Amino acid sequence: MNDSDHGRRTIRDVAKAAGVSISTASNALNGTGRTNAATREKVKRIADELGFRPNALARGLLMKRSHAIGMLTNDTYGRLTLPMAAGVSEILVDHGVSLFLCATNNDPRLAKLHLDALLDRQVDGIIFTATRIDLEPPPELLKLRVPVIYAFAQGPADSVSFHPDDAQGARVAVQHLQSLGRARIVHITGEENYLAARIRAHAYEELVGPSGQVMFGEWSEEWGHSAIDDIYSQSGPKPDAIFCGSDEIARGVIDALRDRGISIPDDVAVVGFDNWEVVSKQTRPPLTTIDMQLKEIGHRAGLAILGLSRQEKLEPGIVRLPCSIFKRNSA
Amino acid sequence: MNDSDHGRRTIRDVAKAAGVSISTASNALNGTGRTNAATREKVKRIADELGFRPNALARGLLMKRSHAIGMLTNDTYGRLTLPMAAGVSEILVDHGVSLFLCATNNDPRLAKLHLDALLDRQVDGIIFTATRIDLEPPPELLKLRVPVIYAFAQGPADSVSFHPDDAQGARVAVQHLQSLGRARIVHITGEENYLAARIRAHAYEELVGPSGQVMFGEWSEEWGHSAIDDIYSQSGPKPDAIFCGSDEIARGVIDALRDRGISIPDDVAVVGFDNWEVVSKQTRPPLTTIDMQLKEIGHRAGLAILGLSRQEKLEPGIVRLPCSIFKRNSA
DNA sequence: ACTTTTTGATAAAACCTTTTAGCTCCTGTA
DNA sequence: TACAGGAGCTAAAAGGTTTTATCAAAAAGT
Question: Where would I find the H helices in chain A?
Fold first, then answer.
């Protein structure tokens, strides 16, 4: 009586049009139960003609799987989050799973609000991401019935986390410089209270030995600049290569070196960290830098949460995904 | 028989515990129907004790409103999208509405996939955003039952769009320079085939009159640099101010000016466009620039889609939201 | 020819909530 | 006394799907 409603077609429309029961229609479409091949094809064809698409709410309500997952992030600025989110989404979309994005702005009240909303929506899992790998998640996250994956963030002991392999990334950078014949490599990086900074510095020290020099500071271009000023205002041997803790720092370093008429990479080679194109493409010369493969972290986190949501067991622990070096002209 | 299931509490658990019917429980919790004040309080208290939260899927299925909206973006990199998404989310979360994020990567197949998924989930509306205001949306978007809002993107004639007010932004920039007593203002901007570039250039020309000079090029730091080289390698009067079409261009401009020993802002004042902090904070001197208030665009888009999803009527057309000037030291 | 198995299809229950219509009881009015 | 009206509550339907149990008919086996 209402075939011409402007609403969506339901499975009962399909069933009626195909002259079968709702259950048969459902079975035919999902390949469940026992269905005659001919009927199955017919139902599928008619569903197609009618443009039938199942209501995800009804399906989720019944199956207790919403085919949606939530992503909780404290990063409003998006430099880290969006590439990861894109990676997660790329994986999920192929499995018919959608992604809720929740920006918490570092506000616990907001985090709670978002978390409750996600649970109300029966999400199949939650991915927690942060702007630094050693940020603690909100405590509510720890005692959920819903699986949680930590990406670029610290999880509790029995959880699954995905981090960039900072140590390996640092080694790749240093080894590249060494392969260029550089022997006096200095490491200029960000704040020491960041775990990532410490890991990278440690890996660096292991490779360069006692001749190494680590300069902690801020994650800013300005610090890169003033670090160079420090080095060159003091006496003693000068570096022939600099490994920077971020592209921004590297940019400051390069600018300061150029101000002093030092040629890059001939006199001093420079390697950055992040491969943040807006910075690394624009330095002069363009920056050779370490790429943390954020999208790949997203991929893996997406696959992991998909697995957990299907009750698969995952080895708990931190999975460190390899960084790659992106060579431009500064080293 | 299964009160101790580890699943979530349902409204029937609440009803049973309170010794009332399901309908009464629902009425009490939602303030609908006629309920005795005492019963109402009791039900609410018990629901609270039990930690009851209604299942959004069931509710959405019945009410035909999922309390979720989708955001479709072609911007993987996130420079524009994430601030807007954060703005949208800020508004929505207070109304109990969640946000699906869909990154299409400019791939029509992916866009279709995401769009279908959103519709299957019965979203109450869709916000379409793009990386430039004159990008056409996927054609499927035009004939939906679901309300659509365009943010930083071009919608069809009868739709509602929110754009930054590029003309006003340009005027603010130029007027600021004029108020500083500058008379020879040059405009160095990006590609002419971008609508935003043309709008800004036009507003600039109206204010400076025939003495003006617009230089279209690329949206890159390099172009800013070479534009300055062009200007100073030619004879004729030199500018005392430069209005740049983006912060990146401004950065190139500032670097090139400094290379020539020109003092900023004393000899030449520079204003940028975007207030992209990673760039504008790091120029030397820090950049005075135009802020497009992306978060505010998100706010307005969120409010608009909320209104449309409640059947409210909205005046179709492009709403241009004012830009603001962020003063640092370059002008 | 009779029983057993297999095949194909279906009615009905379930998921959890909101809403409609109706029921009972009480108070006040004619 | 009878009855209207309201207050307070509830049974049941509805929303769209999947799944379980059941049933009839056809095929296979004895």
Answer: 11-18, 22-30, 37-50, 56-63, 81-93, 108-120, 166-179, 195-208, 221-233, 247-259, 277-280, 294-309
CB A173 within 8 A of CB A271: yes
Contact assessment for residue B181 and residue B195, using Cβ atoms and an 8 Å cutoff: no
Rounded Cα–Cα distance for residues A189 and A157 (Å): 28
CB < 8 Å to B66, chain A? 57
Per-residue pLDDT of chain B (331 residues; tens, 9 = 90+): 333 344 789 999 999 999 999 999 999 999 998 899 999 999 999 999 999 999 999 999 999 999 999 999 987 766 888 889 989 999 999 999 999 999 888 888 999 999 999 999 999 999 999 888 887 788 888 788 899 999 999 888 889 999 999 999 999 999 999 999 999 999 999 999 999 999 999 999 999 999 899 999 999 999 999 999 999 999 889 999 999 999 999 999 999 999 899 999 999 999 999 999 889 998 989 999 999 999 999 999 999 999 999 989 999 999 999 999 999 999 9
d(CA A232, CA A235): 7
CA torsion angle for A250, A254, A255, A256 (degrees, to 10)? 100
pTM, two decimal places: 0.92
Q: Is A267 helix (H, G, I), strand (E, B) or coil?
A: coil
**Residue A51 contacts B where some CB pair is shorter than 8 Å:** no
The three-state DSSP-derived secondary structure of B263-291 is: CCCCCCEEEEECCCHHHHCCCCCCCEEEE
Task: Give the nearest chain B residue to A55 (CA atoms).
Answer: B120
Any strand D atom closer than 7 Å to B129 CB: no
Among residues A236, A235, A239, the alpha carbon closest in space to that of A214 is found at A239
Asked if strand C comes closer than 7 Å to A22 Cβ, the answer is: yes
| B68-73/B98-103 β-pairing | parallel
Site from B66, B121, B222, B226 to mutate, A interface, most A CB atoms within 10 angstroms: B121
Token output for B248: 């990146």
Q: Which of residues 228-267 of A touch B (CB under 8 A)?
A: 248, 251-252
A30 touches strand C (CB under 7 A): no
| Interface contact A282-B222, CB threshold 8 A | yes
Task: Give the residue with minimal CA–C1' separation from C12.
Answer: A23
Is the CB of residue B331 less than 8 Å from the CB of residue B265? yes
Q: Do B93 and A79 touch (CB under 8 A)?
A: no
Residues 69-88 of chain B with CB under 8 A from chain A are 71, 76-79, 81-83, 85-86
Nucleotides of C under 7 A from a protein CB: 7-12, 14-21
- End-to-end distance of chain B based on CA atoms, in angstroms? 74
